Amino acid sequence: MFLDSVRALQYHNSWGDKMGEQTTSVFQLIKSKAKLLKREAFVLYFAYKDQRVPWHAKLFAICVVAYAFSPIDFIPDFIPILGYLDDIILVPLGIWLALKLIPEEVISDCRAKAQELMAKGKPKNWVTGISFIVIWILLGTWLSWYLYKRLLS
Questions:
Q1: What is the pLDDT of residue 22?
Q2: Mean pLDDT of the chain
Q3: Higher pLDDT pick, 118 / 17
Q4: What is the mean pLDDT of residues 79-90?
Q5: Residue 124 binned pLDDT confidence (cut-offs 50, 70, 90)
Q6: Could you write out the DSSP letters of every residue in the chain?
Q7: Distance separating alpha carbons of residues 61 and 55, to the nearest angstrom
Q8: Residue 8 pLDDT more than 60?
Q9: In 3-state terms, what secondary structure has residue 122?
Q10: How far apart are CA 153 and CA 149, in angstroms?
Q11: At what angle do helices 55-69 and 2-49 cross, to 10 degrees?
Q12: Backbone torsion region of residue 81, taken as left when φ is above 0, otherwise alpha when ψ lies between -120 and 50, otherwise beta
């Protein structure tokens, strides 16, 4: 009886270790995909600055980059399930579509630049960050004013 309990406990512990390994590998996979996604966002940023990219691709690429790096989402993250839907679906879809609009030779050049930038460490551009925040505040103020005038007038 005692031996059966010990064997059951050993089996349970080994199963728990395997689940822990699987959980760790899933988190490692998610982490690597997120790093790849971040690199692709930098690729779009560099492609935006490249002269060989058509204007419509530049416009779409900069919108995707602005949304990907913006601290403000269309659907706030605190809303259960839906909050992370834009991060999981909209950003990768936008990056994929933007990369389809850019010539392949430009993408390969920009990937090399992005890899070099990420190897150096995180870039910090406070002016750009503050600009995004100011733009979002202005858009929110304008939208509030517009809705106020429409609904209460």
A1: 62
A2: 78
A3: 118
A4: 76
A5: low
A6: -HHHHHHHHHHHHHHHHHHHHHHHHHHHHHHHHHHHHHHHHHHHHHHHH-TTS-HHHHHHHHHHHHHHH-S--SS-TTSTTHHHHIIIIIHHHHHHHHHHHS-HHHHHHHHHHHHHHHHH-----HHHHHHHHHHHHHHHHHHHHHHHHHHH-
A7: 10
A8: no
A9: coil
A10: 5
A11: 140
A12: left
Q: Phi, psi (5° rounding) for residue 19?
A: -65, -40
How is 16-39 classified by DSSP, letter by letter?
Answer: HHHHHHHHHHHHHHHHHHHHHHHH
Location of structure tokens 């406070």: 126
State how far the Cα of 104 lies from the Cα of 124, in Å rounded to an integer: 28
Name the one residue in this structure whose structure tokens are 């659907």.
75
Q: Which two tokens stand for residue 113?
A: 């630049």
pTM for this one? Answer: 0.58
The residue among 31 and 98 whose pLDDT is bigger is: 98
Q: Kindly state the average pLDDT of the residues 57-85.
A: 79
Structure tokens at 114: 């992005």
pLDDT score at 101: 93
